[in-house]
Amino acid sequence: MNIAYFGSPVISQWLLEDLLKKNINIGLIITQPDKPAGKHLEMTPTAVNKFASEHNIAVFDRFLSKDNEADLIELLREKRIELGILFAYGEILSNKLLLCMKYGIWNIHPSLLPKYRGPAPIIFPLILGESQTGTTLMQMSEGLDQGDILKQDTLEIKAEDSRTVIERKLIDIAANQIDDALSLLKTNTLQSKQQESRFATYTKLLRKNDGFISQEFISKALNNKKITFDSLPIIIQAYFKKNNIQTLDKYDAGPMLYHLYQGLHPWPGIWTTVQIDDNEKRLKILEVSIQNQTPQLKLVQLEGKKPVDSQTFEKSYNINFL
Fold first, then answer.
1. What's phi and psi for 26, nearest 5 deg?
2. Residue 23 has what pLDDT?
3. 20/55 Cα distance (integer angstroms)
4. Max Cα separation, the chain?
């Protein structure tokens, strides 16, 4: 079977590598165009594009305007592509494109759909302290992450698991799901089931400022106190409002601070602001540990300065987060 792969960032490259190791035939790569990156804003191809070029796989890397989409559909037909596999591509696909291949497009969504639909499904289970997450292989449809489920597997979230660890584990699961589904497809035994949309929750696109946490929240976390809605970090407030969550009964500030660190490190990271000589400065929180549900700040970095342990920082600037 000839397969097209839609993907762009490094995490999508990991899955592509795993699929090729399983001898899955990828005949075409569709990825985002080159974008300015780095200190000098040089035009840079996506990680998937670089990998495809190194492995001599044909690449389509143009924005999907009406004309470009028509060119892509023609290219898919020329290459006799029967199935698309999509993971972290970065653009919404039209129904015309979804239907132009015999078996449509399969999408890897790294959550237990219908929970955590949207652009940040790996991060939100971590920052909300979930005990498990997972990966869903679904048949793409026009609705946001609403397609029928082809495969779904659960992954336990361990206390020490950071986002990067969870990402790698979910990629391994996803590669096996696709391999299994392709085997079932060949024997006409692949089955699907509809999602129960009444249980759906939705995530938001992560922005640089989503890592901000107030000093009030840090103080409550270090003392493991209860929190109010107004003192929640902005990223969690946004999630609660989007999903009409009104109770905080199961949330404590202490574990939440640690979960935020696990889910948002290294980017955008968690940070706060402090007053230094009447100037407001950004303070990055680079390392957090937790014991008996109570977190400890281990390593911080004031803007323009080198990282130091939190005790040294507090003594140097007469700041006490407790």
1. -105, 110
2. 97
3. 10
4. 71
Percent of the chain with pLDDT over 70: 100
List, in order, residues 6 or more apart from 46 with CB less than 8 Å away. 8, 9, 31, 32, 34, 35, 61
SS3 311: helix
**pLDDT attached to residue 269:** 96
226-235 per-position pLDDT tens digit: 888 888 999 9
Ordered by where they begin, the domains of the chain are: 3-199 (3.40.50.170), 208-317 (3.10.25)
Numbers of helices and strands, H then E, in the chain: 10, 13
Please tell me the distance from the alpha carbon of residue 233 to that of residue 235, in angstroms, as a whole number. Answer: 6
Q: Which helix (H) or strand (E) holds 37?
A: strand 35-37
> What does the block give as tokens for 238?
């946004």
Q: Which of 132, 112, 177 is nearest to 151 (CA)?
A: 177
Q: Which amino acid is at 133?
A: T
